[in-house]
Structure formats: C-alpha cells, structure tokens
Please model this.
Amino acid sequence: AAAAGFAAPREAAVTAEHRAGAVTAAAWIPTFAQTFGLTLANPTTILSFAAVFGGLGLAETGAGGDAAALVAGVFAGSLAWWAALGGALSAARARITPRALAWINRSSGAILIGFAAAILLELLRAS
Model:
C-alpha cells in the first residue's frame, strides 16, 4: 500500500523470520539494492560529491581515476561503518526486551518532538 506517494516498507522487514534471526544473505540483496539506489538518487549525496569533486579540483582536471578512487573509498568506508553498526545492533537485539524497545521508541519520539519545538520557537522569535 502507498500513502501520500510513498511506497510502504517491505513486508519482509517485519516477518517472524527476521525477528528470529533466521534470514539468509539472499534475503538482504533486494534491500541492499533498494537502499543503494535510494542513496544514489539522494540529492544530498549528489551535491556532496559534486562539492568534494569541485573542492579537490577533480571536476576541472578530468582525473577520472582519482574520482573513482575517491568514490570507492567513500563506498568502502560507508559499507564498513554500516556493517559494523548493523552487526552491533543485531548482536544487541537479543538483549533488548519489548518493554525496553517501547521506552527507546518513546524516548526517541520525545527527543524529536523537543527538537521540533525548539525549531518552532526559534522561527517564532525570528518573525
């Protein structure tokens, strides 16, 4: 189902198999591909790389090898970070009770509401 033009999250992400940790590597390939595609289409990512390439002079010199090495390095670093973070959270998942998860969710929501209120107050003061 889609709401407001956004596709619903994959149902596979919330199946009992995922909760039990019995997911094969092949099940993650579509999720990886979708996330990779979204990242490539992200305007912030595109503008960030354009700024880095411009700042390093790679856009002017046409040094394709340097640009490719930079992209490969960023990709490898990002992949390592997310793999480490995902692995750590996966290991900790078994220790988090549903009650603790509910409190984590409530706390996160309260923090987000606090940030929104701070921004709103700042906007009201500025006007």
About this structure: Residues 53 and 62 are 10 Å apart (CA to CA). Residues 64-93 form the longest helix (30 residues). Confidence is low (pLDDT under 50) at residues 1-13.
